[in-house]
Write a structure and sequence with these properties.
313 residues; alpha+beta; L,D-transpeptidase catalytic domain-like; 2 domains; 8-stranded mixed sheet; two-stranded antiparallel ribbon; 10 strands
Amino acid sequence: MVHALERIYKSVFMKYKVFTNPSKILLMLFILTAPAVLVAGENEISTRTFGDYHSADLIRKFIHYKVSAEAVCARAAELAKAEAARAEAEVAKAAASRRVMRMAAMKAEYKIVMNTALGMYDMMDLENEDLSLKAFEYAWLGYHHLLKQGKLQKTDLLTICDFSQSSSKERMYVIDVRNKKILYKTFVAHGINSGEEYASSFSNQEESCKSSLGFYVTRKTYQGVNGLSLRIEGLDKGFNDNAYKRSIVIHGAPYVSLRILHKYGVMGTTFGCPAIPSEVSDEIIPLVKNGSCFFIYYPSKKYLSQSTVLNNF
């Protein structure tokens, strides 16, 4: 009998690998030893029983067990899938909530920055100094962003070149933001290909001989053909980030003066550098060098909407 069972196990179960559960194997081995007539259901009342169950009953029990196990597995899979979907929905909901909170925080921050700018503009009476409110608001917004990012080493100064004004006006302002006062107000030239009296065309390209809009951070000084000069690094990608390669620097120039303006009726121009009068360059350049904010403004819709500094909330 034992040998017969071994042969059945090897020929059927090992060959087809039908079952791997030892309890199921034992149960099926028992059922297979029941008389064929009982298995076929022709005689459910058999003298061969195991405990209180007939062979046919055991077959039914086995089938019922198998079906129930499959149902449990299917239900477990459904529950796992539902739980995964619920967890994913919770994650999406939390992310949406964070976005809403972040947007609300950015709006609140923007409002605070603009209110501060308006307050400083009024306090320093910049309207009577001919600096436009928009120029100062954008300058203050960019200064705030750069300050928050840690890109400014000299944080108490903000220099604004308001190119919406005529070059015959003193349109460069060096502002002490800590003490809220103008330290210098002077002339500043624009590029020869940007315009004559007014600058209206700007470029980031080499050899364009045009001014570049946007925010800069001042770097080191050097002695060049124009005397003491100050390197500036453009921070607005696509608008002025070629300033270093173009050798755009702040320097003094004798053609940026009242004398030239009175003689020719128009201020001198440059190859793109924001040149200032020679008589003040030796004072302003040492003051603003090494990490202060320098901003060239013009009401260009393209620049104001695409500036990487202004739109960096």
